[in-house]
Amino acid sequence: MTYYQIIFRQDAMQAPGEVIGLSENCDDEGCAYSPVVLFTTQNGTTAYYHSTFSSSPPEYKVGERVTIFYKAENPEKAVISGEGGVFRFIFMGVGGVIIVASLLFFASNLKNSYINE
């Protein structure tokens, strides 16, 4: 996700936007909310962005100002600056802990196999 956002932002336009609503996505486990952002492109066209990221509680509040990066040829293809950042750090942190623990376990087993020979 981080790589996609970096590549996307390289040739994207930037505009201020405002969260005008939250889309509610519910299932058996509860509801999650994704922001709907209204922004004006550099050529003056009003556009809406419906985020694909959802969270519970909502990451954004209605009325909150955000920065949008969008494609000039298709303004609905956009991302909110920093969107999903908290989740990326959580997943990277958990993944990092798992990798370190796995390497320590592997090193311990390797050491024990050489000692027992």
CATH fold-level topology of the largest domain: OB fold (Dihydrolipoamide Acetyltransferase, E2P)
What's the domain count? 2
CATH architecture of the largest domain: Beta Barrel
Residue runs with pLDDT of under 50 for 5 or more positions: none
Structural class: alpha+beta
Number of distinct helices: 2
Number-wise, the strands total: 5
How would you characterize the overall build of this protein?
The chain is α+β, with helices and mostly antiparallel strands and 117 residues long. The chain folds into 2 domains: 2-82, Beta Barrel (OB fold (Dihydrolipoamide Acetyltransferase, E2P)); 84-117. The chain is built from 2 helices and 5 strands. The chain has helices at residues 2-10, 85-115, and strands at 13-27, 30-40, 46-50, 65-71, 74-80. The chain has a 5-stranded antiparallel β-sheet with strand order 3-2-1-4-5, with helices on one face.
What is the fold's blueprint, element by element?
Elements: H1 2-10, E1 13-27, E2 30-40, E3 46-50, E4 65-71, E5 74-80, H2 85-115
Descriptors:
38% strand, five-stranded antiparallel sheet, 117 residues, 5 strands, 2 domains, alpha+beta, OB fold (Dihydrolipoamide Acetyltransferase, E2P), elongated
In short:
With 117 residues, this protein is of the alpha+beta class. It has two domains: 2-82, OB fold (Dihydrolipoamide Acetyltransferase, E2P) (Beta Barrel), CATH 2.40.50; 84-117.
